[in-house]
Write a structure and sequence with these properties.
With about 525 residues, the chain is an alpha/beta fold.
Amino acid sequence: EQAGIETSLDRFDAQKPHCGFGLNGTCCKNCHMGPCRITPKSPRGVCGADAHLIVARNLLRWTAAGAAAHGARGREVMLALKGAADGSLELPLLGSEKVVTTAKAFGIFDEAKSTKELAGEIAMILLDDLCRTLPGPHKTLESLAPPERLAVWKELDILPIGAYHEVFEALHRTTTGTDGDWENVARQMLRCGLAFAWSSVVGSSIAMDCLYGLPKRSRITTNLGAISEDTVNIAVHGHSPVLVAAIVAASRRSDLTAEAQSAGAAAIRLYGICCSGHSALAKFGEVTPLTNAVGAELALATGALDLWVADVQDVFPGIMDVAACFHTRVVTTSDSARLPGAEHIAFDHHHSNLDQADVLAERIVRRGIESFGGRQSGKVFIPPARMEAEVGFSVENILATFGGAEVLLDHLRSGRIRGIVNLVGCNNPKVVYEEAVVKVADELIAHDVLPLTNGCAAYALLKLGFCLPEALDAAGTGLNAVLGPYRLPPVWHLGECLDNARASTFFRAIANASGEPLKRLPLAFSSPEWSNEK
């Protein structure tokens, strides 16, 4: 504020008061006979749609957009997995354990097949479920979902054909004069929801784990005070892991490190904004998580970041105005997400240059080294706030720590753990920034409910010490009894937003151990500050 720099929080205030029809969801602009607004005087739109139909159509379009958002960035890593498997990309398969377990779940495992052969078959199943052309079973869902849920979904007739198909169908149904039954529209929303969960999220997560390996437990430092002044500082912002993984590898190269040192820097350091930071941190380490999407402009305003690398989603156009106030260069890396004024070093629309990831990453890191010399010392302000946190939890290392899902189930049955809740989602300036996430976590741990967390919501909990064993002081006696002997924190950090799939897998393991339907178990997801379609 003192520097006169506008952020998303300022722009939110400037938007007030918000449109009441938009807040209620009773505005329809799907055709050009409107926009139509539902009031007591005009209870139906021009076409005759009432409030129920308009709200259902708006919700369906949101859900379809969410499925497309995560599915589009998932497609990139699925294609990369296929390329690594068939040899068209020089990428190592770091997740051989995940390849084998997934192949067994899909019913394609054969000891005579190599890891690459299995990975190639998995990639094709994931891609087929994403964009199936001929109607057929959704293999990922039918292989991994609990049987009792599958039976319910079949009875409701909401099993998806594929993510592309359901998004296509959602847009079709909500065009002028098509589906006029709000309940039927809502049924399509559930199909989109299942496609989102099992292709856009679970499918993408499987591909990432097969390609880059499972998360590794570690202790890290977070918040803006973790930025160092004497290094080339490169922020990775967004959601797509393929080029970020190559940037991590490039930052470790001795020749590029030597170039950075010749420019006067001690080393090259990477910082995470939004989910790119969570993902790379969990897989590779050496990435310092700073903030979520709403806080991106605040991180830029430290003046200490030399290069900002943006891929897709939750990259607000407003960052360009803040970057222009400093020496920070911005590079975009996806044809899906360009920013006026940014340099574009990217994968193309057809993903035909995925094999050039290392070349692109080298160019990007060199841009950061070049920018280091332009830093304006008088404009650098790094707040002293920093916090340690324990990260890298996965279903595999959690179950290994406790000796199986049955042990955790026993804690749930006894009431020592009263429930498990995954705290997820983005942030929304309609509520005090990050406060809702923190308040929910406070209440949960005080009442012996174990929170998991991932995505943008996780940053608040990382920064305020919830992901440290010392935070058990604020937890109930039950959580202390269960977690204290293992020196575990009361909140377990699972990673990025796609790692909702880890919580789903964890819940499935507990359901399997209990023999009970998921809906009868004390397991939940909560997004206290949700802000967008994803």
